[in-house]
């Protein structure tokens, strides 16, 4: 895991100075080594968190055998040993990143389709004087670029360093509207007009004239349906096995639920003794007993870590925040605890819900025919509401009313949009003056999986990935783990795992559900665990908004608060959103508080 940066600049001295600034600002991503290298007219930078081959031999940049390609990268290539053997790559070290330029020399840009892992890659082609910037299929690792006022080009793993390379950075109103709608900006969005995100599953090709062409790496998306008969269990075992490969201490973030328990089960199957950490906070549901039971079940070491929110934590949290998000504080506190416990790498069950449709709103799939019939026939709303009890309980009364009413969502993407919506589209438009787009358009990658119907599990899973996993969970996981110099690994967020899940559900109009994980692994304990209520680490946000976070809430309600430069305060007041008293739905209060605090960190540290 690392931070990468670079420039295309005709002035070498200026390029070196800029990349040095970018490296310094990303030291938390890689405190073990820092380097700047020139490759023709391209300057590359890297700050290294040493995980694979932590000796100096693993320091970047990496070169192809013929010297044509120079590469820096952030992330992990989990199948690097298999690639070395399969393509007979002339590597000199055990570091995973060395395979990238060597494989590129054989396959060109198609090398990206062979990489299994999480990555942000910058590769310089010195023969063509061209730069390639690539992100992994799901966008687990971030990568941003901008054109500077002097005509030069710069890129980095994080937004903040890029924004401060030149003055005049402006917040993008469209991105703010997307944030207010769903609690996070889209995976291919930047909060600034002058900075662009490389989309997930994409490569940006940059010429020496700094013109940029963005191409998809896998046109069918990060996961595809290739077979009718798949083995989800085998895909999970293989993915966990690959993700366990590290040359430094690794922890498993263990909750009381199925996803992380599946990693624990597979670890034991592979003969691995894991160190399991469960994080608890006073005032929030405590999963210690359930997690400890899972650790005992599979013979792993167990440790409970108590987290407390200090004033200094809040300040560091917002200084680390690259893009506003309503869901990152938990990840920040967890990864801070992981770092303090002495680990550089942590495994997480994140992504399991999206892979098998484990969240409650996936139950709505089987009711889509009934919902469509309601639009055509005089079916009493009470009857429909009774049948939709599971969806209604998950969505809340107002969302249930919209779900049952004419014009409500009638496909998988619509169900996801309704569930994940923070503020309704009409209110967001009133608050920002930006017209909001339908959930299906926000899905980001509507073309995958190819050939699936709008009411299928595959279509709903794709929308859940785009609207929630790629937009919120993965960016938060990267930002707030790297703030503590921790690499967070997510074996469920793997193209092979998702493809196997989609193949298992091929043609289904209902979710696989968490029981599918235990069934696929032939594990009775996991199957029984799937019948219990959904678990996961949570924070006592309601009490905290009236307690240690109350000063931030009050500050955001002041008439001169920065948030009102982007949000219409009069309309927010009419909607009850400008009060210093937290709302019943804590996320509504926290959304504006986060936006205000994030804006203040930029005002305090301008370019």
Molecular structure report:
By secondary structure, the chain is α+β, with helices and mostly antiparallel strands. About 40% of the residues lie in helices and about 15% in strands. Strands 2-3-1-9-8-10 form a six-stranded antiparallel sheet. A six-stranded antiparallel sheet has the order 4-5-6-7-11-12. A five-stranded parallel sheet has the order 15-14-13-16-17, sandwiched between helices. A hairpin with a 4-residue loop joins strand 6 and strand 7. The two termini are about 25 Å apart. About 0% of the residues have low confidence.
Brief sketch in words of this structure:
This protein is α+β, with helices and mostly antiparallel strands and 607 residues long.
Backbone structural class: alpha+beta
Distance between the termini: 27 Å
Number of helices: 26
Low-confidence stretches: 389-395, 440-447
Calculate Rg over CA atoms. Answer: 24 Å
The strand count comes to 17
Beta-strand content estimate: 15-25%
Give the neighbour order of strands across the main sheet.
2-3-1-9-8-10
Q: Could you estimate the helical fraction of the residues in percent?
A: 40-55%
> Mean pLDDT score, rounded?
90
């Amino acid at each position: 895991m690392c931070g990468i940066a670079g420039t295309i600049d005709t002035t070498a001295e200026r390029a070196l100075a800029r990349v040095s600034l970018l490296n310094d600002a990303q030291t938390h991503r890689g405190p073990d080594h820092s380097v700047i290298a020139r490759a023709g007219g391209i300057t590359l930078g890297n700050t290294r968190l040493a995980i694979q081959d932590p000796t100096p031999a693993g320091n970047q940049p990496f070169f192809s055998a013929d010297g044509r390609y120079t590469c820096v990268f952030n992330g992990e290539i989990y199948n690097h040993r298999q690639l070395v053997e399969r393509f007979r790559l002339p590597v000199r070290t055990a570091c995973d990143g060395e395979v990238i330029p060597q494989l590129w020399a054989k396959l060109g840009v198609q090398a990206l389709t062979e990489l299994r892992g999480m990555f942000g890659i910058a590769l310089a082609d010195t023969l063509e004087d061209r730069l390639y910037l690539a992100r992994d299929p799901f966008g687990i690792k971030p990568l941003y670029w901008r054109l500077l006022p002097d005509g030069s080009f710069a890129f980095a793993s994080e937004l903040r360093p890029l924004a401060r390379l030149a003055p005049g950075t402006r917040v993008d109103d469209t991105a703010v509207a997307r944030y207010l709608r769903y609690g996070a900006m889209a995976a291919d969005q930047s909060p600034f007009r002058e900075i662009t995100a490389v989309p997930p599953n994409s490569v940006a090709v940059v010429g020496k004239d700094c013109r940029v062409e963005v191409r998809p790496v896998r046109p069918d998306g990060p996961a595809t349906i290739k077979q009718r008969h798949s083995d989800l269990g085998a895909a999970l075992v293989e993915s966990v096995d690959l993700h366990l490969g590290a040359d430094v201490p690794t922890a498993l973030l263990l909750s009381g639920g199925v996803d992380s328990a599946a990693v624990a089960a597979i670890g034991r199957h592979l003969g691995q003794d894991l160190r399991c950490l469960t994080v608890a906070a006073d005032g929030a549901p405590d999963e210690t007993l359930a997690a400890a039971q899972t650790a005992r079940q599979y013979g792993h070491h167990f440790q409970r870590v108590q987290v407390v929110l200090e004033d200094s934590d809040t300040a560091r949290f917002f200084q680390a925040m690259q893009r506003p998000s309503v869901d990152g504080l938990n990840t920040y506190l967890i990864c801070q605890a992981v770092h303090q416990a002495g680990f550089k790498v942590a495994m997480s069950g994140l992504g399991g819900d999206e892979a098998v449709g484990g969240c409650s709103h996936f139950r709505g799939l089987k009711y889509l025919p009934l919902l469509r019939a309601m639009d055509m026939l005089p079916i009493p709303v009470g009857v429909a509401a009774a049948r939709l009890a599971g969806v209604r309980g998950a969505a809340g009364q107002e969302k249930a009313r919209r779900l049952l009413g004419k014009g409500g969502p009638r496909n998988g993407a619509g169900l996801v949009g309704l569930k994940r919506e923070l503020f309704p589209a009409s209110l967001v438009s009133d608050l920002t003056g930006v017209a909001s787009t339908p959930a299906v358009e926000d899905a980001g990658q509507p073309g995958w999986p190819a050939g699936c119907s709008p009411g299928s599990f595959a279509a709903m899973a794709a929308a859940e990935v785009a609207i929630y996993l790629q937009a919120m969970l993965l960016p938060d996981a990267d930002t707030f783990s790297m703030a503590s110099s921790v690499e967070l690994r997510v074996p469920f967020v793997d193209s092979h795992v998702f493809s196997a899940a989609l193949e298992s559900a091929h043609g289904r109009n209902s979710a696989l559900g968490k029981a599918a994980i235990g069934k696929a692994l032939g594990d009775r304990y996991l199957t029984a665990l799937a019948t219990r209520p959904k678990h996961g680490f949570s924070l006592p946000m309601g009490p905290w908004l009236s307690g240690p976070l109350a000063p931030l809430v009050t500050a955001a309600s002041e008439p001169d608060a920065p948030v009102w430069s982007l949000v219409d305060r009069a309309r927010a007041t009419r909607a009850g959103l400008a009060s210093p008293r937290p709302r019943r739905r804590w996320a509504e209060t926290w959304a504006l508080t986060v936006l205000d605090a994030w804006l203040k960190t930029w005002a305090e540290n301008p370019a």
